[in-house]
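User: Hey, my collaborator sent me this sequence without any context and asked if I could get a structure. I don't really work with proteins. Can you help?
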Amino acid sequence: MRHVYPAIFAVTVVFVAIQLSGSAFAQSGSVVVTDFVSSPNQKNSEQLPKGWALKVWQGRADVRLIQDGSEHAKVLRMRSDKASVSIYRKVKLDPRKFPVLSWKWKVTKLPDGADARYVESDDQAAGVYVVFPRFPSFFNSQFIGYVWETNVPEGTILRSRKNPMVHYIVIRSGMDNLNKWIIENRNIMDDYRRVFGSAAPRVGGIALMIDTDDTLSVAESFFANVVFKGDASRTSMAEEYNRFAKAADSTAWIYE
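Assistant: No problem. I've predicted the 3D structure and written it out in structure-token form, which is a compact way to encode the shape of the chain:
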């Protein structure tokens, strides 16, 4: 992720400066960020779902909605060949009301040699980033990136070497679950407190990213619906945290 520092700041400016079309919509007990199954393409675009903007940090974008015969009628496919690309949209909500972020993803190809613990190999096949704007947003906005890593152990909380306001939480790592659709549920209130040590502010946006520009390799990932849910179940979340603790020798650790 060679250009993370200016890139993340640029995304922050975009979130603050513009209102993207096709805003997230509320359902009973949830806020749907996107449901790619029913999402139309943007006008004059064969690539992006309506309401999302594209940013290419390095290389060429290969991002598009495709038909998927396994589980979904339509999904977002992201491919990267020595590139760094994200799509993003503005989402405003109170995490106290909608504390659980849920999404589906599948990774079919990991970037060779990627390892976010080192600045020269900071690439991921897939990442879901939550933006927490703070005034002045250009300097203070915070990011939690839920990432699928190649080598960093699951459960690791990792601060970016290039931007101290960006923290990764490694949700998946390695090849064990390649080519499988997986549903993830994260309590962003709990994660924010674990990462930043205080109560979470309002959410300002969501970004999906694929990144192989440091390792100069190839990766591919797929995303389905992204939703914020209310009424978090502490019991169900505890099971997820236990899986992480076991993966990280009984404790999630922060790499400084």
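In plain terms: The longest strand covers residues 218-229. You can pass these tokens on to your collaborator as they are.
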